[in-house]
Amino acid sequence: MASTRVPLSVLDLVPRSQGMTPATAIEESVALAREVDELGYHRFWMAEHHGSEAFMSSATSLLLGHVAHATDRIRLGSGGVMLPNHSPLMVAEYYGTLATIHGDRFDLGLGRAPGTDPMTAAALSRSSGHLPDFAAEVADLQRYLGEPQAGRRVRALPGEGTKVPLWMLGSSTGGAQVAAALGLPFSFASHFAPDQLDEALSLYRDRFRADAETAQVDRPTTMAGVNVLVAPTQEEADHLFTTAQLMAIRIRSGQPAPLDPPVESLAAVVPTELLPLADAHQSVKMVGTPDTVVDKLEAFVDAHDLDELIVTTYTFDPEMRRRSYRMLAEAWGTGMPADERVAVSA
């Protein structure tokens, strides 16, 4: 029954289709946020990417402030901030400012990947991202957002005392180790890096420290990403999903471009040697009619004992993206009253 289903959240990268301006892409993501807010989705997260032709989500905190004005109740957050690209103090100031303006609606998901190519990462003056350094920066960030302490010389103002909840993100076991050691909830990027999902979740659960000074949850708390596309028929869903497959091929083969329109046959437009890239990194996908997708999502939750799902959808036409989220919301039951939804400790 719908009342037993885990909360369903949305991950958005502000995708831009061919022929679309960056401003229009941002407007479409704001429109999506407004709609999924009304549909009862739990969170709307935006992910930091730099130098991308396809994703306009480089200045994530600015986008989230824009989205906050357009929505009412949905939790907003980074999915995530690539912390080695930034000073922990500056991140605390940005997200502390958002929380000061809009209240307790924000999550701060943290990753250690560059979110871009090596040359752009260098231009961002990125730090190493090595696990010990990264874990120390996460702890620093949490302290900046925590309660004021006597004698502290460096302070996040505004930000101090807002206690913006932290999530650790990961696409390998590295993020799982940090999340476990610090006692933080963990979100795995299985929507684009599924290979180590089971290993990362197992490591996180085995090593989780509820007694860590930085702990924010009292038990291992997990979320995982899924590629989703819902349409009235399986045939239409498969057709629309070719946009996401072409996107994956472009990313993996170094051919950046805005999203392509769907095609009747990938084989007709993609060189044979590149076809395996279409699904190699999107094996965690649920594409089809509402009932089909819901059944697959429920099986995925059960198989990995998840507390929450975060889904992402790419279509050339933004209306088809919104339609997919509408159909999924109705089938999943996200529109039920808030007090009837499954609560998570984060």
TrEMBL record:
GO cellular component, one term: cytosol
CDD domains per the UniProt record, alphabetical: Flavin_utilizing_monoxygenases
GO molecular function: oxidoreductase activity, acting on paired donors, with incorporation or reduction of molecular oxygen
Domain of life: Bacteria
Stretches assigned to the Luciferase-like domain: 16-303
Family: To bacterial alkanal monooxygenase alpha and beta chains.
PANTHER family: LUCIFERASE-LIKE MONOOXYGENASE
Entry protein name: Luciferase-like domain-containing protein
Organism expressing this protein natively: Serinicoccus hydrothermalis
